[in-house]
Design goal:
The protein has a single domain, classed as Lipocalin (Beta Barrel). It contains two helices and 15 strands. It is mainly β.
Amino acid sequence: MKLILIAACAAIICACTNVQADTGPDSHAPIGVMGDHYHKQGELMFSYRFMQMSMQGNRDGVSGISADEIATSAPNRFAGAPMQPPFLRVVPTKMSMDMHMFGFMYAPSNRITLMGMGSHITKKMDHTTYMGAAGTDVLRTFSTQTKGFGDTTIAALIKVDDNLKSRWHLTAGVSLPTGDITKSGQILTPMNTEPSPRLPYPMQLGSGTYDLITGLTYNDIADRWGWGGQWRSVFRLGKNDEDYSFGDEHHLAGWASYRISSRVSISGRLEYFERKNINGIDPVIMAPVQTADPDRQAVKRVDMNLGLNFLIPGDHHRLALELGIPFWQKLAGPQLETDWQLTLGWQYAI
């Protein structure tokens, strides 16, 4: 199945020959691409995206690993500390994330478009707790949840080249640490106690650091076909107040679209995503669970995304959706693997 998906996406990209004017349904990139286009002087755009992601099952490297295997063989980096068993006796089994993203774009000139984006995030993670320090006897399951505002992005999109067919622009911005990194919640320990400590790194809502955002985006158009590509990276500028920083992130994407009618288009997109391990450690986060280990956070993944784009009569409103499914992922595990993510979006330009 994965080979079929790879071949289909490659066929779409290779078949492309040059996207239409600014008012077409796919004059923008697929909705999952951030900062994909700039505007003419005086133009303003508001946007809303809802993104949902599901993770289930664990992986170590490129291979799956069961909860029982983790509980009996995965070393606990905190072993030797009080109440810390030798293995990871609390195993995440499922995680979901809902994110509401609100954005705006304004062009003070034909060369520069300013962009801002904020978000509200809800995360939920299910766990299985194993009894004591060894064996496969399950104590109980439990869930943790966090919600609140995430980090805020401010950036400038700088036009490099613009002609009748192709566009190039640079992205230069910063992520502001407006998301909470001290969320706590009730857990279940292997000793059958239920404290409420600070939750591990994936359950926090922000990075806690000022982060540099850079990128380069390309779009090309011809008749009913369109395509483009984007490189985008996030570099952490020092450690946060809890003495750690999340790993740098890198995205490399290529997409193609086909205009079915003057108001409807379809798209396909391949994306490579890489995130490094955490640098440093929060001394308050200590638990026999993989999510508390800074060295079990790195990700390398390739996703295939399929999308639909709709231009609403009046030509100011655009609706879009995109479904992404990984067909390869390598995790510094054990880690929960990504199953899918869905993005729904609305854009209003004036």
